[in-house]
Amino acid sequence: MKIALVGNPNVGKSTVFNALTGSNQQVGNWAGKTVERKTGIIRRDNLDIELVDLPGTYSLTAYTQEEIVTRQYILREKPDVVMAMVDASNIERNLYLVLQILELAPRVVIGLNMMDLAKSSGIILNATELAKALNVSVVEIVAAKGIGIDKFLSEAVRVGLLQKDPLVHQVPYPSELEEKIRAMENLLKDTSWASLYPLRWLALKRLERDPEIGQEWQSVSAPESSKDKKRDSCCDSGDALNYKLKKIIELPGNDLLRSYEEEGWTRDHFEMAFADAKYNYISQILPRFLTQEDLRKPSLTDSLDRWILSPIWGYPIMILVLALVFWASFIASAPLGEAVSQGMALAADFLVNLLQWSHAPTFLMSLVRDGIFAGVGAVLAFVPQIAIFFAFFSFLQDSGYLARAAFLGDRLMQLMGLHGKSFFSLVSSFGCNVPGIMATRTLEDPKDRLITMLLNPLIPCVPRLGVMSAVVAAFFPGTRGAMIMLSLLLISMLLVMISALFMRRVVDQRERSAFVMELPLYHLPTLRNVLWPTWHKTYTFLKRAWTFILAASVVVWLLSSFPQGVPMDSTWAGKMGEWLEFIGKPLGFDWKIMVAIVFGFTAKETTLSTLGILYGVAADASQSIAQAMTGAMSPLKAYTFLVVYMLYIPCLASVVTTYKESGSLRWTAFGIAYNLILSFIIGWIIFHGGQALGFQ
Amino acid sequence: MERSLGELKPGERACVARINGGGALRRRMMDMGIVPGVELEVVRCAPMGGPLQIRLKGYYLAMRRGECAKIVVSGEQRVAIKHTLASR
Ligand SMILES: Nc1nc2c(ncn2[C@@H]2O[C@H](COP(=O)(O)OP(=O)(O)OP(=O)(O)O)[C@@H](O)[C@H]2O)c(=O)[nH]1
Ligand SMILES: [Mg+2]
């Protein structure tokens, strides 16, 4: 049995999905987190159920990328039952989508979620009355606390097993409209499409001139999706959805539509009339199941917003919040990182001693000490940073603050000619560029989408920030380090702004795009929603360290230790560096840095592990990579390295995602070239500018 | 008296008379519940020409000034309408 979770954005669909399937879909308090469908299999009473989590949508006349996914799924895959999730605290608008669903699919169960929020804001809902009004079963749930979820599913299964489609109450349209619908129904009832969809829905869509009606699609599985997961599991994006056009059927009714148009009933007119009728119907039935307590007290959201969105205090608060997040994750976490380093050094010592004792060959000892522990150990040192960052980030996004930050940041986005929703994409990129690029799907305009996609790599992700903070800590100890980090973040932000304007030119975007976004109610994040993503991200990072980074470390160690017995710059790595040196020369980089930067393309952390190996940091020595580097580089060179490293190229995973999302090799190549050239130019300016100013 | 939504001051309420312009934006607004007859309230404006925070049907919406200019509202207040949620 196929069951689909459908509903407005941010009503708790993924929360229910996670609870039922035990998976880990992104949850947060802003609209548009899920951008691809995700399937989970559950067994219930000897029945295999395919539960599908879909992106939230405001209507079934979808036009943004992620909404199209939902519409296509319902239209083409035809789930047996639709679990229609509704936000009880915002039921009036939520029911609009429910009415649309009911016109298309009769087997529906309504899940009345967020009952706790509704109650605390003085809304009393009578589920039985709502069920009676629409003739659909209704289940009350509080998904965040796991209340009612099981009942929701069993009700859906029950409806799915019914012999006959239940008779739901249809929206009554005004008689003038009803006549036109009936005339259209008569024309369509003998077509092959009438056997696929409810006749009334077909007629409505035909009157609205829905472009998809009359086309037949066939789903083709996406073979890459399983490979994707292996490539980078930190950026699990769900299943891709692909269809092929099978054929186009000529549907009758064109003459009728023309004659209506002459009477003034254009497509827009029909759409408006249908929407109007639905909203009218909702306000008619609303009093039957909703009573509003007249609380005088302003709600929590009202009082918080008075400060957080205040024209005066809003921005200082936002800066404070951001500063806190970055301070806690990249500066305050330093002792923890050091503890991990020391732990690794002890472990390396122990292992090497063990090897010595067992008379293992020296190259094996070198591999363990100079390859594995120097490489992987360096990367593991910023596990605390990753954990702390994601804990804060999850808290912010699950509380509802992120949507407020988008509201406040929108002025800046406008200045850059960007869409307000680009903000979410760019902020997500701090976690990892891949979900950031995926999040561009919520943008309606394809050009806006492309611009945002190309900007994403300029945002340093946490692993990149981790590497940077390790280098900063060595070269610029104390409070100077914080200032240096801040200056780097400012450079990145400035470049995002300038690049945005530049990309608008390149992409030839002249339109100023629209921005209509819901501001959700605040609520206290659940422990699960904060700790689970934090653990998940940390775990995938750890996994990458002991698989991918380990392999890369071994490769780099091999390259840098063979042929054996020669000095470092005549090894294979040294030879490789020699070819690259001419690129690095204008920036003052030696060959080791160039090799590390090139390896960083596979995954950004590799740069640090490579540096660790190339600078010969023996893990048993008390000296860290950064300390070894301080001997080899001046602070100015280090700063240039930091800037270039922050900007130079997105990692392999983000390049692949850019290609998949843009569907264009040309734009992907353009993005890479842009980053490379930009980082080189900025690096050159900083290095030579710094020298001219007398910095070392 | 007809004005655009962008001309309302924070705290003011008005009813939607019509939405200028067509296409995707108007449809989006319809999906969000902005149809003729609905009462809107401007809660606050972000400074320096930033977006507006609007309340309707018991929930909050952020909208840029450009979009607000397309929504024509009529000044007369329908006092009888009671908001759900947050309107207190
Ligand atoms: N107070 C409260 N919050 C809830 C409840 N159910 C879910 N939430 C919260 O609502 C927010 C949205 O939940 P999601 O599951 O991400 O919503 P979604 O419908 O998948 O959203 P999109 O993927 O963006 O369409 C999260 O912050 C949840 O923690 C509930 O019953 N009560
Ligand atoms: Mg979701």
Give structural notes:
The complex is a heterodimer of chains A (696) and B (88). Chain A is α/β, with parallel strands linked by helices. Among the domains of chain A are: 159 residues, Rossmann fold (3-Layer(aba) Sandwich), CATH 3.40.50; 88 residues, Helix Hairpins (Orthogonal Bundle); 131 residues, no CATH class. Chain A has 30 helices and eleven strands. In chain A, the strands form three sheets. In chain A, strands 2-3-1-4-5-7 form a six-stranded mixed β-sheet, with helices on both faces. In chain A, strands 6-10 form a two-stranded antiparallel sheet. In chain A, a hairpin with a 2-residue loop joins strand 2 and strand 3. In chain A, helix 7 packs across helix 8, helix 21 packs antiparallel against helix 28 and helix 26 crosses helix 27. The longest helix of chain A is centred in the last third of the chain and has 35 residues. The radius of gyration of chain A is 29 Å and the shape is elongated. About 3% of the residues of chain A have low confidence. With 88 residues, chain B is an alpha+beta fold. Chain B has one domain: SH3 type barrels, CATH 2.30.30. Helices cover 15% and strands 35% of the residues of chain B. Chain B is built from two helices and six strands. A six-stranded antiparallel β-sheet of chain B has the order 1-6-2-3-4-5. Chain B starts with a strand and ends in a 14-residue tail after the last strand. In chain B, 48% of the residues are buried. The C terminus of chain B is likely disordered. Classes of the chains: A alpha/beta (696), B alpha+beta (88). At the A-B interface, helix 3, helix 11, helix 12, helix 17 and strand 11 of A face helix 1, strand 3 and strand 5 of B. Strand 11 of chain A pairs antiparallel with strand 5 of chain B. Magnesium ion binds next to helix 1 of chain A.
